[in-house]
TrEMBL record:
InterPro entries: DUF222, HNH, HNH_nuc. Belongs to the Rv1128c/1148c/1588c/1702c/1945/3466 family. Signal peptide: none annotated. Residues 315-367 form the HNH nuclease domain. Residues 380-413 are annotated as: Disordered. Residues 380-392 have a biased composition (Basic and acidic residues). Residues 400-413 have a biased composition (Pro residues). This is HNH nuclease. GO terms for molecular function: endonuclease activity; nucleic acid binding; zinc ion binding.
Length: 413
């Protein structure tokens, strides 16, 4: 083990800057083989530790819990290593390929499902030659993409239990959300085939409907925006279940001084689930929201609770929908029911809530406008859009022409 660590230290000390494409790939290939061999040794050791009950030495019941607590693995990664180790013990052909560095730890875990006790029992009842299955699946894993290995294993397990009862596919659905220090979230979810198809269909509908000219977002960004747009649509529809007599809504708490101050005001506003955002972001949310004035006393208790006022009354929104017909950002085709009513001059800075001071913008482009982009309606009724640097966004044959100067910023009323 000391020799292995010393070799890794030597590798880490190498200067990669002088290397270029082919040389870097030549260096990478044996590293991947070494990674696979290490993964095999880890899985093999975990399996022996599981059989001997080694986790009990540290007061834990299972190796999966030991890996989570001591190796800081996620729950899914710990389960994967344990499953791979069990597979190595039952599938010698796969074990040999892993020891040679020909299979990844993830492939071993996928094939390892074959060696789960219930599947081994069914295979024995049906006199399945496990050696043949081991060889076929290992050959597929050696030569084909990872997805093909997963498909082959799934096909085998389906055939193994062809006459069994249809399992409830929803039992394995899960969604885990992790909140970070800045209020952003990341997550992991697992859906069955039907649930996944529903999600992909809904997201793809929004992605395709929201495509616009010169869209430089990655596929991942498009899907993330589509998910937020789906939530926006559902919240705006008013059809979600009520919570203690109130319909679900995004709640922002901010002091009046920060709200009217044009500065960014980082960390000035607090969201309903505890995240903090800037005053600028709060002003963006307030564009098409409702405002409730609450006067707080020196002890932090409310002294007065004013009436909640919708900033954009229904008649102004309807008029904007008829006039604009959808998002006015150049090149966007988002429909009206995806859009917020944006105040061209922010209401907190004296802008009136009127049709003349309003523009329909979808969630993504509403964000853009609050980050330096500008839209302006021309006397002929057409909308134009400018980037933060003052150049105009144009579509059609003339879009490659010289940049046009942006409009002057509106003065506060």
């Amino acid at each position: 083990m000391e020799q292995l660590l010393a070799a890794l230290d030597a590798l880490a000390a190498e200067d990669l800057a002088p290397l270029f494409g082919p040389a870097l790939l030549d260096r990478l290939r044996p590293l991947l083989v070494a990674q696979n061999r290490l993964a095999a040794e880890i899985a093999r050791t975990v399996r022996e530790a599981e059989v001997s009950g080694a986790a009990e030495v540290d007061g834990l019941k299972t190796m999966a819990s030991w890996l989570r607590g001591h190796a800081h693995l996620s729950a899914s990664e710990a389960a994967r290593v344990v499953r791979a180790g069990r597979g190595l013990a039952q599938l010698p052909v796969m074990a040999a390929a892993c020891a040679a560095g020909q299979l990844t730890g993830e492939q071993a875990a996928v094939i390892g499902r074959v060696a789960e006790p219930e599947h081994l029992a069914r295979a024995a009842e049906q006199r399945v030659d496990l050696g043949v299955v081991d060889t076929v699946l290992t050959d597929i894993a050696r030569e084909r993409p990872h997805a093909d290995t997963a498909t082959a294993v799934h096909h085998y397990l389906d055939r193994l239990d062809a006459d069994g009862p249809e399992p409830d596919p929803t039992e394995r659905r899960r969604l885990v959300i992790a909140r970070h220090a800045d209020g952003s979230i990341s997550g992991r979810f697992d859906l069955d085939a039907v649930g996944g198809e529903k999600l992909q269909t809904a997201l793809e509908a929004v992605v395709q409907a929201g495509r616009c000219a010169a869209d430089e977002r990655t596929r991942a960004q498009q899907l993330a925006d589509a998910l937020v747009q789906l939530c926006d649509n559902q919240l705006a529809s008013g059809q979600l279940p009520t919570l203690r007599g109130h319909k679900p809504q995004v709640i922002v708490k901010i002091g009046i001084e920060d709200l009217v101050d044009p500065a960014v005001g980082r960390g000035a506003a607090e969201l309903g689930f505890g995240a903090t955002i800037s005053a600028a972001r709060a002003r963006w949310l307030a564009c098409d929201g409702a405002v409730t004035r609450i006067v707080m006393g020196p002890d932090g208790l409310p002294l007065e609770h004013g009436r909640t006022v919708r900033l954009v009354p229904p008649h102004v929104r309807r008029a904007a929908e008829v006039r604009d017909g959808g998002c006015v950002f150049t090149g966007c085709g988002a429909p009206t029911h995806w859009c917020d009513v944006h105040h061209l001059l922010e209401w907190a800075n004296g802008g009136q809530t009127s049709l003349a001071n309003s523009a329909l913008l979808c969630e993504r482009h509403h964000t853009k406008v609050h980050h330096g982009f500008r839209v302006k309606r021309q006397p002929d009724g057409r909308w134009r859009t400018w980037r933060p640097d003052g150049t105009e966004i144009r579509t059609g044959p003339g879009r490659t022409g010289p940049p046009l100067p942006g409009p002057p910023l509106p003065a506060a009323a």
